[in-house]
């Protein structure tokens, strides 16, 4: 499987000027770059707006680090291709060299939602944006499976536009299909993932609930470092809203979190239902009044 033929890939790399490292992951690093797409590229129109170049974030993945599973990157590209939503990071281009894959994404220069933890303590558009993005993915039969603050990025500094990034373990899913492969990140993964039971779309709603909880108080709800203990905590699904950190948070916000963090996936709302939750609807309304 190839995402770009070899000679073509060398030509393509010349279209990029690489700059600072934005982040490092398990498979390589993500570098900021300016891209000059050729005139026949569909993104050329975007580029023309900014003087012939587009600011991008290029995920550089070392093939060696994939330990034979090159298909993982082909899947990542395939899942992202054709998606178009303001809360989903856009993949502009992809190519490969002998040793590396290159995925060029829309630059999210506002940084990770992770950095905003505990500096806010109240609703922002980001809470709704995350669920909006998840709904769009689920409508397109995609489960993200790794929703967490490190993978939620702001498009610009001081902007409220949040995008879901990192489709490294996202999967296509058919109705009634159940996924069993490894997924998620400790602390954010749903109990059915940790228990290696079949899982599906509801895992993203659990993780969204954990993200909202964490953003409102500054710490994650299930914190055991030992896997077995963490599984027990998640399976019990017992949420504590410690008065010291939660007294100023509305009951609606707590109700929203409690609705999502349900140990039984069948008890969680769908993304569509979550978007209709009073907390999101009222808070979004209030924000628009302040605009
Ligand atoms: P990994 O699978 O290694 O976690 P990610 O796709 O999450 O890879 O990228 C790692 C980090 O690189 C992110 O957490 C983020 O800080 C940064 N990053 C990824 N994509 C972008 C982007 N489009 N714009 C800006 N920074 C990005
Ligand atoms: Mg990531």
List the helices and strands and how they pair.
Blueprint lengths: L5 H8 L2 E10 L2 E8 L8 H6 L4 E9 L8 H10 L10 E6 L3 E7 L4 E2 L12 H15 L2 E2 L8 E3 L7 E3 L6 E2 L18 H4 L7 H16 L9 H10 L6 H4 L4 H10 L10 H5 L2 H13 L1
Antiparallel strand pairs: 1-2, 2-3, 3-5, 4-5, 6-8, 7-10, 8-9
Helix pairs in contact: 4-6, 6-9
Bound molecules: adenosine-5'-diphosphate and magnesium ion (MG).
Keywords: ATP-binding, Kinase, Nucleotide-binding, Transferase
Protein name: Kinase-like domain-containing protein
GO molecular function: ATP binding; protein kinase activity
Q: How would a crystallographer describe the biggest sheet? A: 5 strands, antiparallel
Portion in strands: 15-25%
How much helical structure, as a percent, in the residues? 25-40%
Shape, per Cα inertia axes: globular
Structural class: alpha+beta
Kindly describe this structure.
This protein has 291 residues and is of the alpha+beta class. The relative contact order is 0.11. Helix content is 35%, strand content 18%. Strand 8 and strand 9 form a beta hairpin. It is built from eleven helices and ten strands. The strands form three sheets. Strands 1-2-3-5-4 form a five-stranded antiparallel beta sheet. Strands 6-8-9 form a three-stranded antiparallel beta sheet. Strands 7-10 form a two-stranded antiparallel ribbon. Helix 4 packs antiparallel against helix 6 and helix 6 packs antiparallel against helix 9. It is globular. The chain has helices spanning 6-13, 44-49, 71-80, 125-139, 191-194, 202-217, 227-236, 243-246, 251-260, 271-275, 278-290; strands at 16-25, 28-35, 54-62, 91-96, 100-106, 111-112, 142-143, 152-154, 162-164, 171-172. It binds adenosine-5'-diphosphate and magnesium ion (MG).
């Amino acid at each position: 499987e190839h995402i770009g033929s070899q000679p073509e890939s060398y030509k393509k790399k010349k279209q990029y000027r690489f700059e600072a490292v934005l982040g490092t992951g398990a498979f390589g690093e993500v570098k900021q770059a300016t891209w000059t797409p050729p005139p026949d590229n569909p993104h050329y129109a975007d580029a023309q707006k900014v003087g012939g170049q587009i600011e991008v974030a290029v995920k550089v993945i070392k093939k060696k680090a994939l330990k034979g599973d090159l298909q993982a990157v082909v899947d990542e590209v395939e899942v992202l291709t054709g998606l178009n939503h303001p809360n989903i990071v856009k993949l502009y281009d992809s190519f490969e060299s002998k040793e590396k894959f290159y995925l060029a994404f829309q630059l999210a220069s506002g940084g990770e939602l992770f950095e905003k933890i505990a500096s806010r303590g109240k609703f922002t558009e980001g809470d709704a944006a995350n669920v909006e993005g998840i709904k769009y993915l689920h409508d397109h039969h995609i489960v993200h499976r790794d929703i967490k603050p490190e993978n939620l990025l702001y498009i610009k500094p001081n902007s409220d536009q949040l995008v879901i990034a990192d489709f490294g373990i996202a999967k296509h899913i058919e109705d009634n299909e159940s996924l069993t492969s490894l997924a998620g990140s400790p602390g954010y993964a749903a109990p059915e993932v940790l228990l290696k039971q079949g899982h599906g779309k509801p895992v993203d709603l659990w993780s969204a609930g954990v993200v909202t909880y964490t953003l409102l108080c500054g710490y994650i709800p299930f914190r055991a470092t030992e896997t077995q203990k963490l599984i027990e905590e998640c399976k019990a699904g017992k949420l504590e809203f410690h008065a010291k950190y939660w007294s100023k948070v509305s009951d609606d916000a707590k109700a929203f979190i409690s609705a999502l963090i349900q140990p039984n996936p069948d008890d969680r709302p769908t993304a569509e239902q979550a978007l209709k939750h009073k907390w999101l609807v009222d808070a979004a309304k209030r924000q628009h009044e302040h605009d």
